[in-house]
Amino acid sequence: MSEEQVNENKEEQASTSTKTSSGLDQNVAGLLTYVLWFITGIIFLVLEKENRFVKFHALQSIFVSVGLAVLYVISVSVPILGWFVGIILMPVQLILWILLMVKAYQGEYFKLPWIGDMVEKQLDNK
After folding, report:
1. Nearest to 34 by CA among 114, 106, 121, 120
2. Residue 71 vs residues 17, 42, 75: alpha-carbon distances, Å
3. CB contact set of 63 (below 8 Å; sequence gap of 6+)
4. What is d(CA 75, CA 110) in angstroms, rounded to the nearest whole number?
5. Hey, which residues does 48 pair with through a beta bridge?
6. pLDDT tens per residue, range 9-50
7. In this predicted model, which residue has the larger pLDDT, 104 or 78?
8. Is 84:7 a contact under the CB 8 Å cutoff?
9. Which sign, positive or negative, has the C-alpha torsion 57, 5, 106, 16?
10. 88: helix, coil or strand?
11. Burial category of 2 from C-beta neighbours within 10 Å (exposed 0-12, middle 13-18, buried 19 and up)
12. Cα separation of 118 and 114, whole Å?
């Protein structure tokens, strides 16, 4: 199956399957997966049984939040230069967090580079 067909299939599922296992609309559930970073990602990953859209955003939430947390810890542990990187990283995290929530609420499969591909592989293996 080509990548275009896969994207069309995902968009079709997003437009036809609006309810999730939790009873929420999928765009609301997708947004909520990002609210408390990896915590809500894990909650929705465990609760959601069928909806690929919610699972995608839950996994992406987990991967992004853990990755950014590791980057932040590494950066602040390096004196001076790392502190500046940590200061710059904080607003980048906030902007990314808001962007991902908005895209999920709009019903988009918004894939981040590298992380989105890892998430797709995880979903395809299940």
Report:
1. 106
2. 36, 20, 6
3. 115, 118, 119
4. 27
5. none
6. 555 554 445 788 888 999 999 999 999 989 999 999 999 988
7. 104
8. no
9. negative
10. helix
11. exposed
12. 6
Q: What angle do CA 79, 81, 87 make, to 5 degrees?
A: 100
Residue 55 CA to residue 49 CA, distance in Å, equals 8
Q: What is the DSSP letter of 112?
A: P
Q: Is the pLDDT of residue 3 over 50?
A: yes
Q: 3-class DSSP state for residue 92?
A: helix
Query: Rounded to the nearest 5 degrees, what angle is found at the Cα of 68, between the Cα atoms of 38 and 63?
Result: 45
Token representation of residue 107? 């019903």
Q: Note the pTM of the prediction, 2 decimals.
A: 0.81
Q: Which two tokens stand for residue 96?
A: 């990314």
**Residue whose tokens read 């609210």:** 35
For 43, the token pair is 């909650």
DSSP notation for 11-61: HHHHHH--B-TTSSBHHHHHHHHHHTTHHHHHHHHHH-SS-HHHHHHHHHH
